[in-house]
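Practice problem: predict the structure.
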Amino acid sequence: MTRVRRLMSWGQARPAFLLFLFTFTLYALSMGPARNGSGYSADGTFAFEMAKSVMIDRGHAYLRDQNRNFARWGVGLPTAFMPIVALAEPLATKAPQRDRVPLGEYDVLLVNQPALGGTEGPNVRREIDIKIDPGVYDRLVLVSHSGLSAGFTQGTEIAQLRLTDASGQSTEHPIRVGIETAEWAYDRGDVRAVIQHDQPAPVARHIGNARAYYYGATWRFESPRELASVRISYRQADGNFYVDGLALRSPDGTWTDGPGVGRVWSTRQNREFFRRIPVAAANAFASALGVVLVVRILRRLGYSERVAIVSGLIYAVATMAWPYAKFDFSEPLVTTLLLAAVWLVLVHGSSGRHRYALLAGLVAFAAVLTKYVSVIAVPILLVGLVVGARSQQAWGETLRQSIRPALLFAAPFLVVIPPALVAAAVLFDFHLLYVSELIGGLQRGWLELPFRLGLVGLISSWGKGVLWYNPILLITLPVVPWFVRRHGWRSLVFIGIPVAYALLYSRKQVWYGGNTWGPRYLVPALPLLVIMGAPLFERVLERAPSRLPAAALAAMVVVSAGVQFMGVSKDFIAYLDLFQQQVAGAVPFKGAIYGGADYQPWSSIQPEGDYAAVLYAYQFSPLLAHAWLLRADAVNLLAPDRTDWLADALGRTPWLRFGIDAVPPNPEHGLGLDFWSLSLTESYLAYPGFLFWVAALLLVLQFTSLGAWIGLSGRIWPSASGVRSLRFLSIGAYAALLISFDTLHFML
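Answer:
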């Protein structure tokens, strides 16, 4: 107990550490499976493959073959992924195989065999030949399920297994519902109400559908048989039967999998999945460091610890920093590096120590190496370095004294970039790197879009506007003049970088950052915009005569955090794919008549699809779409038996409420929550031991997060503030959220 108290006291004395723990564990809890290990972005995929090539592949094939892509993507993200990929490799090699089902002493491989059924169809047959390897076997196991079989009574022979020996002698074995197999949707409410047969003990649940079951059956031979063929025939006039896996055991105990078409998940894919999921921790770690840097910057600017912590928390949960902490884009790392450079510039300005100027230059250089367009922030940081050192002396004296720190700041760029450009021209194709990629890239994607379209889109478009994806900015942006009056020339960096990003990307053809959540390219501007709201937060927290302003601020934070939760809880591609595949073709001009017609000439030529309506038309905004799909997810989880409720929820599309009658034929394709723990729980229900470790990791993260929040709440609502009850209310609310999250796992 004494050690626990000492640890708590140590943490209480270090609020920045508590803030890092809280944000990192929150981000780690909300990491996603990245579409079954395929990643969220092209730059993330490149970074992962490059990190894997360096750390795992001894031949470094991908590094050799794809190194020219460094002209497009920087080295920062691959470098950040490298240690995580190396640490994840032992897990990837030992993790259970998702496409196998433990059945007795052997894990049977799941395969896709043609469906058996009583009705004619292109993929339905009356009989299938398993085409086993001829040999001597003493045991056969079968994994299967039936469909549309609720009306079959207990023991009905739905199919027949015929085993033929090498001598031509055959034996028939019945496959009966309620004994060897059963209805896959046995627990669904509408099926449970009418089903006529029992449910044998399921051997596993379907991958990605925890309410669907696999069933197992074993036939032991009295003496080993030299089998030549295995055939399964259907025995009923209706219904269906599915062979999901088959295995045979030799007398020496060796098992052989039966053949099938299309494995559910190969061994290579399984390993890639477990290599890929942990790399999201890199951006979670970087984003949590960025939150701490927000606090450090505000403390350097003279704000109290309480104001700094509240501002850091607002940035952490009420801006797109939260969703992007789980994605594998390069923006989170760039954001943190730029924040570190801003902080070091401020430290240099207040201390006068030149080493901080050099460190600021090194960090800014790392940001440029991570994403080359970050170079637009370098001159602004350099100017901030100069004006930040000015006090009462004349400008001439300020400039003279700034020569040395400016040179130190620029040293990494001057020392590294020119030789690197020359070396790249010598080692690689000069024309490819600098003409095709650099100059050609600018010509292909930049400086051709009308300025108004991009700027309005970035700021206020219904599908990508930074104001709607970060509602907290609606109250921080109006107080920017207040921040400028208080901090003078030091505010130049905080204004200049966001303005530079907005102006630059307003001319980019794909100004919105591709298929993702909100305006991706403006993510590095968000912490600076939140920092400039600090005077307002200070006034509300420490000088307001009543609690009403604090309540209004809390309400805005909750609203803004709710928007981020919508982006965190679902994979953004789910709705975008649904729109492109099921909705766009059902409305004129792919919906651009409702908004985005001016931008469609550029949108229609994008390889990812024409999303002009999603960007500019409020009827198709991802914000409304995610609210719609999350409602359907809630119905699906809380009332799984009410399929009518789910159908009603999915049928109430946002655009239908505005009179657009475009009904997607399969809206259920948009269902599903995007959390790693839920994905692993759904996919590995057949492996209780593995799920134990998933639950253990989940609980460790949750208890750490709750403990960090308890410590932080004491800093936000100290005993002397007179509102100590708010602290206990916040702790209870956060604990309730964690318990609710845990409950979701039991609902699967």
